Amino acid sequence: MTAPAPVLRVRNLVKEYGEGDARVRALRGVSLDVERGDYVAIMGASGSGKSTLMNILGCLDVPSSGTYLIDGADVGRLDEHQLAILRNRRVGFVFQSFNLIPRMSALANVELPLVYGGVGQAERRSRALAALDQVGLTDRVHHEPNQLSGGQQQRVAVARALVTAPALLLADEPTGNLDTASTRDVLEILDRLSESGRTIVLITHEDDVAAHAERVIRLVDGEIVEDRRQSPVDGLPPRAAASEPV
Ligand SMILES: Nc1ncnc2c1ncn2[C@@H]1O[C@H](COP(=O)(O)OP(=O)(O)OP(=O)(O)O)[C@@H](O)[C@H]1O
Ligand SMILES: [Mg+2]
């Protein structure tokens, strides 16, 4: 029997933007594997290449050279149609700026990836409701984004990312626009998802966010300079203890 393919297998990724004097090498040969169930934080200063890497991993952009496999599929060898399917079914995204569709309910936003995936209406509805339940928003399903707090909007975005049961959850600074309490809510949800076996790759430049992950990868100028495992902080304190003043 062969071992299951890692969720991500990345080899020598290089990304260059621009031409001539304006050329920027945003990634200079990045290699890494991410196994199923791993919770990885990618850290690095502004401009170190974090979003560039995430956009490539999420099939939103293509590398200048190098290879990467998602769930065993060699992304560079897929045609547009296969790539669209991979993006829709295997990867869930959470962005710093939520990226919800305005004037559509939370429920409709979460159903959207299933609409693109061709899932029928009844199943769409029940899966979207279950995803919203997972992020604690059953009482807000008919609210539109501008009727929700930032933290609630980000929880809708997490539900939308999860609703397709993706192999990989990618989050680029998911708490970057949130206050302390909402940050804690979102991190708690990610902790719970990690405990239930989801594979998560999160980008952050905050140490206390990265502390929730099991593995920390540090980028400097488009290169991995550190890749270490750590014991994540206990992200799920008893509710009573969490709300006590410190
Ligand atoms: N579309 C683009 N065209 C040209 N250069 C780009 C483009 N996108 C990113 N870059 C450059 O590539 C480098 C890496 O950018 P990237 O957005 O990946 O950084 P980052 O680590 O996500 O930073 P931040 O923490 O500020 O979000 C930077 O020098 C940036 O200026
Ligand atoms: Mg970025």
Automatic annotation (TrEMBL):
InterPro entries: AAA+_ATPase, ABC_transporter-like_ATP-bd, ABC_transporter-like_CS, ABC_transpr_LolD-like, MacB-like_ATP-bd, P-loop_NTPase
GO MF annotations, alphabetized: ATP binding
Pfam families: ABC_tran
PROSITE patterns per the UniProt record, alphabetical: ABC_TRANSPORTER_1, ABC_TRANSPORTER_2
SUPFAM superfamilies, A to Z: P-loop containing nucleoside triphosphate hydrolases
DNA-binding among keywords: no
Superkingdom per UniProt: Bacteria
Name listed for the protein in its UniProt record: ABC transporter ATP-binding protein
Organism this protein belongs to: Nonomuraea spiralis
Domain spans labelled ABC transporter: 8-246
Keywords of the record: ATP-binding, Nucleotide-binding, Transport
